[in-house]
Amino acid sequence: MTLSDETPKAFTGHSRQRQTRQAVKVAEVVARTLISIGGIGTIVAVATVCVFLVRVAIPLFTPAHSTPSHDVRMTADLADRRIVRAGADEYGVLLWVAWSDGAIAAYGADTGEILGVPQQPFGQAPSAWSFSPDGDDVCVGFGDGTVRMGSVGVAIEFLGDNQVPEAVRAVPIGERTRFGDCIFVHTRPGQFRRHTLRAEARPPLKIGDEPVRLVAHTLRNDGSVVAALAGDTLTLNTVTEIRNFLTGEATPQAQRTDVPYPVTREHGMPLYLFLSRLGDQMYMAWEDGYLRRYDTRDRTKPVLAEETRLVDGAETRLTVMGMLLGRTTLFTGDSSGRLRCWFNVRDEKSPDGLRFLPTREFSEFDHPIRAAAAAPRARLLAAGDETGRVRLFQVTAVAQIAEVQMDEGEKVAVEAVVIGARGDRLYAFSGGRARSWMTVDPHPEITWAMLFRPVWYEGFDRPLHMWQSSAGVDSFEPKYGLWPLIFGTLKATFYSMLFGLPIALLAAIYTSEFLHPRVKTRVKPLIEMMASLPSVVLGFLSALVVAPWVEGRVPHLLTVMAAVPVTFLAGAYLWQLWPNEWAMRLRAVRAWTMVAALPLACAWAWRLGPRVERWLFAGDLMRWLDGQIGNGTGGWFVLFLPLTGVAVAYAMHTLSNTFFRARARSWSPTSVALADLGRFVGGLLLTIGLTWLIARVLVFLGFDPRGREVWHFMGTYVQRNALVVGFIMGFAVIPIIYTISEDALSAVPEHLRSASLGAGATPWQTAARIIIPTAMSGLFSATMIGLGRAVGETMIVLMAAGNTPVMQMNIFNGFRTLAANIAVELPEAPVNGTHYRVLFFTALVLFVMTFVLNTAAERVRQKFRKRAYKL
Amino acid sequence: MNQMQNSVTGPPPALRLGSSALNSRREDNRLSAIARGENIPPEIHPELAHETPVLEIDHFNLWYGDAQALFDISMIVPKGKVTALVGPSGCGKSTLLRSVNRLNDLIDGVRVKGSMRLAGREIYDRSVDVIELRKRMGMVFQKSNPFPMSVYENVIYPLRIDGERNRRVLDEVCERSLRGAALWDEVKDRLHESALGLSGGQQQRLCIARAIAAEPEVLLMDEPCSALDPIATNKIEDLMDQLSGTYTILIVTHNMQQAARTSDYTAFMYLGRLIEYGPTETIFQKPRLIETYDYVTGRFG
Ligand SMILES: Nc1ncnc2c1ncn2[C@@H]1O[C@H](COP(=O)(O)OP(=O)(O)OP(=O)(O)O)[C@@H](O)[C@H]1O
Ligand SMILES: [Mg+2]
Predict the structure, then answer these.
(1) Does ligand 1 come within 6 angstroms of the Cβ of B29?
(2) What is the bridge-based pairing of β-strands B137-140 and B218-222?
(3) Are residues B226 and B93 in the same domain?
(4) How far is CA A125 from CA A101, A142, B235, in A?
(5) Measured from the CB, is residue B93 less than 6 Å from ligand 1?
(6) Structural element, H or E, at residue A198
(7) ipTM strictly over 0.90?
(8) What would the pLDDT profile of A185-231 be if each residue is shown by its tens digit?
């Protein structure tokens, strides 16, 4: 017998093969590969979504850059003519210039070559011009006291192969050519684009006898409004056209109103006259910056509403003035180089309730501003100064997009600026030269400040956080303030956690610590099944069933919320009155008494509801919430009742317990129970009294819980509100919080429970002192997962929150969450547009919010875990 | 009565002592009879009849579901004395201990029959306040189970649940209990650190400290020294010495020397039954049953 032959004797009768089998090794490799692929795939997928969101959102923030594109000399004799207005088509192919003598000429943007001969649509040299900032319409006045409406613009037509002249057909694709007075562009095989300058004028309309010095106009649906200063008479004319059915010829007719016009020579001559889009405001400005604003809401009775100064300093001159898109905001430029935007803001003290205020200021220029123009389709403003510097601004964002120089060498004053219709080109004119630049900033109106800081939008009293992404009107400015949405998300989360969290945690503690294990195995799956309820159903339920039902029963519900805990506590104290033996014997029915307490509480609270409404809310909650009746006491009372309740309970517990216990040792159990009951009743009365006192004091100090501010937690009642959403969304988060926290509580080792109970602790003491602290990390996770669910929940809030993006804590008002907003708006946002990208950015914000939340939660959880390590 | 009869009819221990042919009679001794399921009455020494019982166990049976773990146990635990429960693993010592303070109530499917009385009052009665009952009995578990809290909070836990807030009282109780459990010197500088940072043996002594902090009438100890080194074990035994007289101690142990050293009475259990119960000296030196002798001398088990 050699050593090698000596195999170990099999103890179990089975000799073990020491070499790992090939199959096991293969399985190992396969499993590891599959798991790796799955894991990495998941990470990659999540990362890809994130990267996608970032990629869509990033263009919003890319800084603008501009590149010179053309520098041409316009072939026209310039003798003694001044540019009144210039324009360009949206492709940057054709430029036009209206000269002061009434000639309107078209030029090739790339060559400067004049196209055909200048047109003279008005026949004679106008004495006053009025161009609309956002359209082709124009109105001019003449020395003979007449005005003519008309239009100037570039007509663009798409033509087929056979519709264009022979000579044009040979142009290579992508190239352009001049033909007569138009430019053809060969866009793609068989398609040409023709750019033609169209200048037309309607028949003249006599509005006065003296020469027209200033004119302003606006087109309304019911006819145009023309304001004119002829001599020293200022008139407001409502122009309607009467069409001759036989000839088809239209004759304008004016309904004229004289506007009170105190002639002031001290300011020199008036230089500017403007009408707002609806013709309800008229502005007249002098060279020294003096401005008169007329209230023309009633066009038959114009009123001088305000006089103000548009420039600072006595020497400063007003050099340019115009209107932005929407014709609500006016911009002014002066000789100090300051550029400002103005609009009317509500003001109680002014006679017509408005005040004309500068809300934007651009002080980038150091030299007098010589030319400025607004973009036709965006709130962009371009201005050029005396030294040839040209800047492009986004007005609402107060952001400079481009800064270019007319001429690097000699300093020439800019005579006119034009922003291309798409906002992507900038033109400047000076001394017969036209320069153009490409400015690439696809989303000039989006800056971090626009998204996250209060913005003073046109027509509002002060800077506000606002989300309003679309409206019916073209001139409408989208408002992309994200705070209302973030606020809505947090509000939804807050209220749903307020309802859901206590219920879920208490239910979890109850099932894990107090419920018989056999019952638990039935109850738990039942609650978990709640999680599979589609949130659409819950949303439907809350919007169409709960919301209408709750409306009108709020006082009852508030009473029930207070009544249930009071009834339970009272029941518990009454139960103690049983002699001990009896109580032990009756333990089986105790659970049923508890169950019975709930409907009992609801029943008496329901009867008390109307009375509570009378006591707290002056008999009509809806009107009370609206602030029409009563004072704030009731609201504060409702808010502080639970808080004082807890405080009083705690105070009584700490203060009177030792004292009470020392005495109670010698008492009979019944008298102890009686004393307990007495303490409870005393505490209840004390709570009510104290809360009332606090409420009175707050009201006395001038605080009212009702209102429209962010912190007002009550206010006008809206049917679909946070109360309903919180309640229903509470149901959506309960199952998930419940399940996870129940697992966490059950995972606490049994030996801790035995140790605590063995030391004589009651089950509740064991739960509160041992089980809950030990399971804290799990409970915290559960809460955070519930929170995550609430933050991202879409359907319920979409259906039941009313979706108004208001920032009010008001529990009786609605809100709009980030998720619901995306669901509502993304389908109608044009792909890759600003709105689309902003929506993706909100998705990113949501992502970041949950990420921050989860990370913070994880950190806290780790802390809890460390405390409870080694179990 | 019954006990007396048993003790009289039992075979004289001298007969069997020193017998060399033990193995040959294994099959027909009591233990195999019990294993077969026969009902054999226990040997209870008459000395016990003179003691004042604090705990009386009367025909007590316990089932875990369908499996019976305790069979018809009848014994008294004398007041102010140390009583040791010995027996092979799985014979139901812990179960019996847990039945005394009704911790078995927590386990699903446990059923009991028979009765137990603490100071004359029925333990298994619906009208009994279990919390109050447990407060009268401290328990040290077989497996150490400190709470995930500070050492200090662990020790004064029984006082905390009683609502004691007086710092002086708490500090004093904490120190005394820790000294009693021979832990004070080791932890006095880390009273406010987590108890889970203590070693296994320290944790066990902490649990002992917690049990005595409750000032129980009856102290139930389930192998309190199994994780302790000889020095600590010695100190715990000293503690038991000090406590006996005022407190009643019921201790489970696998250490025969310990049982012999510390206890006044020893009960030998086997497969859920009480086999022999008497003064420790007698049980260890001249038990009535050869099986007991075999067990305590380590020849079987
Ligand atoms: N929770 C339980 N459920 C079912 N059976 C149990 C349970 N606890 C104990 N048992 C069984 O009851 C019998 C007695 O167990 P017990 O723990 O009382 O033994 P012991 O004497 O303390 O043993 P040891 O000395 O090993 O601690 C054993 O057979 C055991 O398997
Ligand atoms: Mg045991």
Answers:
(1) no
(2) parallel
(3) yes
(4) 5, 7, 119
(5) yes
(6) strand A191-201
(7) no
(8) 999 888 999 999 999 998 888 888 899 999 999 998 888 999 999 88
